[in-house]
TrEMBL record:
High-level lineage: Bacteria, Pseudomonadati, Pseudomonadota, Gammaproteobacteria, Pseudomonadales
Organism: Pseudomonas jessenii
GO biological process terms on file: L-valine catabolic process; thymine catabolic process
Protein name: methylmalonate-semialdehyde dehydrogenase (CoA acylating)
PROSITE patterns, per database record: ALDEHYDE_DEHYDR_CYS
EC category name: oxidoreductase
Keyword Oxidoreductase listed: yes
Superkingdom of the source species: Bacteria
């Protein structure tokens, strides 16, 4: 079994000590050992970042962007290799892995615009012979902690932008599927990034706590589950750090009586069961307005769920792979047991699925519940698996109240042909990302990504314009060059025009 190294100061570093296994979820076999960084290892990465910062902050943004242009090319050239690594350790299909990489590359493309996005703002003659401008300056050493479900895309939400803004970055990826994340970081070094500007350290709570506690780390970006997001936000902000912490989700799709049902069903199939439901924007609740829509939806979903092509993610032409770990599979299965016990109607049961040749893999078939009610655990909690719950309501207002009352507010969508209903939904729904006939409204890289309520702790969303704000601090400079011949008396009143 090979050991996955850290990447610190441009070098691959191995470490003896605590380690965990990384599994191939399709076979259920452990394939790599992953060292868990000690506090000393984290300090090593911080020291390297700190040493690299002065030169990197003074590197012209256009030069920093050139590194990103080369990085983009390398990512595209290595798409097949990266997708294979994602699929081997996460379990998602190769096509899905390539899709997440492409969405990650969009963020590199946005970062290529560094000279434009860091131009600042300028006002001439704000007073006599006085000019003023706002500068966007880097923070210094910043860190990111990322989840297992997008090992390529989510880190790419963070460090390309942080780095072109002039910061040095320490990434602590998920310990479940770190190989693609590491390879991508190596490609950035190959693209010409100076040593120490990006380090990747593997680890668990010990590593994360060391990053939170280090005074040199000025900001933390986190994406993962809500309890950890809340912890990192509380502990980081307590220490005066800037923190954006994106958490869990329960995303509802509203189906109006006038919806184009066939298209809505196709959209829901991908959004609920793609990536085995392990997406923070996955649709896990279908809210049907009226029994007629609900009956028709369930009737159309059932044969499609039963026909899902499920197998090892690395095989071609599949719809769904396994869940990431045996523990994740058992947890999701447990939710299905719980839904049955609570009285929901289990219309399709994916429990006990066995894939010939991959009997030890962490598979679970698609599950569908009807007649789910708001007090059930399967409705309230994030399941993070291939389970779709149908909730029946009588009006759009009732559907919106349901969504607005939920603790999470990451994504949502409405399927309708009624512009008035869609507009009301977009205006009044308390969710950060909204789709109209679009099931996974993940913003493109030149907008920003973030939920509301307990799906995000912090003020600024991830990537795009909010990302630039997060990774820079403003300096407002007011400059006066008095004319030589003039002499002005002291002014004791507050200066004004
Ligand atoms: P997780 O919270 O278990 O882990 C995320 C990161 O936190 C990992 O790097 C992990 O090592 C670290 N971590 C875990 N326990 C920790 C602890 N006690 N102290 C400090 N650090 C700790 O999440 P996950 O299972 O990897 O990912 C799935 C979750 O992420 C889901 O809840 C999903 O909704 C969420 N997610 C959210 C978004 C979003 O944009 N809102 C995007 C992707 C995933």
């Amino acid at each position: 079994m090979s050991v996955i190294p850290h990447l610190i100061n441009g070098e691959l570093v191995t470490e003896n000590g605590r380690a965990v296994d990384v599994f191939n979820p399709s076979t259920g076999q452990a394939i790599h050992k992953l060292p868990l960084a000690t506090r000393e290892t984290i300090q090593h990465a911080i020291d390297a970042a700190k040493a690299a910062f002065p030169a990197w902050r003074n590197t012209p943004p256009a030069k920093r962007a050139q590194v990103m242009f080369r990085f983009k090319q390398l990512l595209e050239q290595n798409e097949a290799r990266i997708s294979q690594l994602i699929s081997e350790e996460h379990g998602k299909t190769l096509e899905d892995a390539a899709g997440e990489l492409k969405r990650g590359i969009e963020n590199v493309e946005f970062a290529c615009a560094a000279p434009e996005i860091l131009k600042g703002e300028y006002s001439r003659n704000v007073g006599p012979n006085i000019d003023a401008w706002s500068d966007f300056q880097p923070l210094g050493v910043v860190a990111g902690i990322t989840p297992f479900n997008f090992p390529a895309m989510v880190p790419l939400w963070m460090y390309p932008l942080a780095i072109v803004c002039g910061n040095c970055f320490i990434l602590k990826p998920s310990e479940r599927d770190p190989s693609s994340t590491l390879l991508i970081a190596q490609l950035l070094i190959e693209a010409g990034l100076p040593k120490g500007v990006l380090s990747v350290v593997h680890g668990d709570k010990t590593a994360v706590d060391a990053l939170i506690e280090a005074p040199e780390v000025k900001a933390l970006s986190f994406v993962g589950s809500t309890p950890i997001a809340e912890y990192i936000y509380a502990e980081g902000t307590k220490r005066g750090k800037r923190v954006q912490a994106l958490g869990g989700a329960k995303n509802h799709a509203v189906l109006m009586p006038d919806a184009d049902l066939d298209n809505a069903v196709s959209a829901l199939m991908g959004a609920a069961y793609g990536s085995c439901g392990e997406r923070c924007m996955a649709i896990s609740v279908a809210v049907c307005v009226g029994d007629q829509v609900a009956d028709a939806l369930v009737a159309k979903l059932v044969p499609q769920i039963k026909a899902l092509k499920i197998g090892a993610g690395t095989s071609c032409g599949l719809d769904m792979g396994p869940l990431v770990t045996g523990q994740a599979r058992d947890k999701v299965s447990g939710y299905v047991d719980d839904g049955v016990a609570a009285g929901a109607t289990l219309v399709v049961d994916g429990r006990g699925l066995s894939i010939p040749g991959n009997e030890e893999g962490f598979f679970l078939g698609g599950c569908l519940f009807d007649n789910v009610t708001p007090e059930m655990r399967i409705y309230k909690e994030e399941i993070f698996g291939p389970v779709l719950c149908v909730v029946r309501v009588n009006s759009l207002e009732e559907a919106m109240k349901l969504i607005n009352d939920h603790e999470y507010g990451n994504g949502t969508c409405i399927f309708t042909r009624d512009g008035e209903a869609a507009r009301l939904f977009c205006d009044e729904i308390e969710v950060g990302m909204v789709g109209v006939n679009v099931p996974l409204p993940v913003p493109v890289a030149y907008h920003s990504f973030g939920g509301w309520k307990r799906s995000l702790f912090g003020d600024l969303h991830a990537y795009g314009p909010d990302g630039v704000r997060f990774y820079t601090r403003r300096k407002a400079i007011t400059q006066r060059w008095p004319q030589r011949a003039s002499h002005e008396a002291s002014q004791f009143a507050f200066p004004s025009l």
